[in-house]
Design brief:
This protein is mostly helical. It contains 18 helices and no strands. The protein folds into two domains: 134 residues; 230 residues, no CATH class. Helix 5 packs antiparallel against helix 7 and helix 11 crosses helix 16.
Amino acid sequence: MVTDSQMSRYNRPIMQEEQQIYDHLLHWIELESPTEMITRFQTLFLNGTGYPDQQISQALKKIVGSELATEDFRYILNRCCHILINRWQARPQSQLAIPQLVKLFESPPHAFGISATHSYTIKRLHSLINQFTETEQYLTLRRLAQVLTEAAESQGNRPLGMLIRRYPYLYEHCLLSDGSTQEQKTTVQKIQLVRQKQFEIDLSQYVTYQVRRSHSTQSPTADSQHIILPVTNPTLLTDQDLSQALHHYIGKIEGSRTHKDIALNFMTHVGSSPSIRSFKDDLYQYITASVDPAYGNRKFNNQLYYYLQDVLPDSSHQCLNDFWLIRICNHLLNFLVADKPQSPNHFMFIDLITNLGPIATIGILLKIVLICRKVRPCLERRLSILFSHYEMSAREAVEWLVQALETLNVALTTNFGSMNLSLVR
């Protein structure tokens, strides 16, 4: 594991002055309270003057004056932030300090009592701070702060980005950036595991409550001596939509078969080492079986067929293996969800949700992940592309995406989580 005192992940030699600042922060984080550390951080980086340790002030001055500062400073500052964040995250009583740290960057930096000899360095520092707030590194910090902040999520005029804490499967893609160290990645993974586990517990308790309430209604005397305490729906779906999603993702959808049964049967039918061409034909049938014919026969089925024919055309006669399976499924997710991060093409995804609804649309994506579990990160990455694309949009303006994100959370949790929801079937 890469530690705070080792070379950062973007593979750039660490300057002596840079290491001085890292070691300085590592020293004081063990001695001072979060409030004191935030004040220390603000004085050093945001004010740029009046810092009590002149040696550290001089080290920062050399970094700021470096020819490489324009490119490197964002990584250095991000690393300094994460030295504090990594320690506070490991201490539950200190976690609320993380949003306070990130909030420092929301206001333009100011300095007080700047002398003529220091004015250039401080102005340069403030310019670099302002540039930092436009980087991917700062964006991931802001999202992390949002994950750790309890937000009023019911208001439709709030930005989609405020819902990030609800979707642990997006964390690895939305909370890490170029230059993130392994330690930062480990911190995000820990947060992700806690949030995912909590959602599993909340969903399990909600399902148990609904089952008990249903039994009580059907047999009033059975629970007459017991008070059934209500449990809040842990999603932003309506109770009816959540019930339908649960039955769709873990219930029987084709005769006596669940999604997992269908996926297993498909891979058994495909057999060992078929040609890529024959596999794509079978895959077409596997996917379209879940599509309403009224929609599929208009144009979707043809679009899907010809898209699959164009995937790896020069390798059609090769035998299918894990490598080719991953590539084919990855291409298919490009087609169904979104492709490149910049200006993602996601018309097909919107069209599917509009015509089939989020439950059936996410069901198609689930079928792909169930036959090739290694592409689950690819699916999560594509949803993170859409989340980032619409992050600043009001929730009410992208309700279709909110419904998709919520529904995917249910689909992934019920099929890949550790809880037993067999009561739903």
